[in-house]
Write a structure and sequence with these properties.
Layout: E1 3-8, H1 15-28, E2 33-37, H2 45-54, H3 66-79, H4 81-90, E3 93-97, H5 100-108, H6 113-130, E4 138-143, H7 146-154, H8 173-189, E5 193-197, H9 208-227
Parallel strand pairs: 1-3, 1-4, 2-3, 4-5
């Protein structure tokens, strides 16, 4: 069974770019690698509903309870479970652009205190327990400021689920900052999470190659440890 890597971060943090960089880099080293991006907007029934949600068809962000929103994202992954298990069976490494961590950070950021902790526990029980999705061996958080993230979102091309420059979540800067802080709390409290910084100490954007090198180093540590002594 392959090693499962999840790449996380707020909208615009560069998850898709870095997932592609990681796949390419590992393949050049001779590993069998494949990838999957969530949500799968056009490929699953729940994915299509997520597109509706992000386009505001169910109401504003604060009008949809996070537990209900969490079901849409979990359902999208449940519909994709067999495909994911097949990829894990046929590769050395599988790289995910978003996974369960996105559901935890985005939905839990809308709550606080005990309610937040309860929702995090509930989402994990649904995704890993009820839906029996495989747990990632490593989750890598690309930490990016919400201001820089919003700028990077504005540079994105056309997406298949929206005709807007920014969807419901991407357009809400205070919301993105809450999600970022929730991501950081998750990363700092979990042994199977690591954080890679998207910005340099002076606040400038690090290059794609610099971030990719950090991520590849973390993954290779895990791959080499799994392989054991030669």
């Amino acid at each position: 069974m392959a090693i499962l890597i999840a790449i996380e971060g707020i909208d615009g943090a560069g998850k898709g770019t870095q997932a592609g960089q990681l796949v390419q880099g590992l393949r050049q080293l001779g590993y069998r690698v494949d990838s999957l991006q969530f949500p799968r907007y056009g490929a699953t029934t729940f994915g299509q509903a997520i597109g509706d949600f992000l386009n505001g068809r169910f109401g504003a962000l604060n009008e949809v309870h996070p537990q209900l929103a969490a079901v849409l994202y979990a359902g999208d992954r449940y519909e994709s479970r067999e495909l994911l298990l097949q990829l894990l069976q046929n590769n050395d490494v599988v790289v995910l652009d978003r996974y369960v961590g996105s559901n935890l950070a985005h939905q839990a950021s809308k709550l606080a205190g005990e309610a937040r902790a309860t929702l995090i526990d509930w989402i994990e029980r649904v995704e890993f327990g009820v839906f029996q999705l495989p747990r990632p061996d490593l989750t890598i958080l690309i930490d990016m400021s919400s201001e820089m993230s919003r700028e990077l979102v504005s540079r994105k091309g056309t997406r298949d689920y929206t005709d807007r420059e920014a969807d419901l979540q991407e357009a809400d800067l205070p919301y993105l900052e809450k999600v970022r802080r929730c991501y950081l709390a998750l990363s700092h409290s979990r042994l199977d999470w690591r954080t890679v910084h998207g910005l340099a100490d002076d606040g400038s954007l690090r290059t794609i190659e610099q971030i990719a090198a950090d991520i590849r180093g973390l993954v290779l540590q895990l791959v080499n440890a799994a392989a054991g002594p030669v």
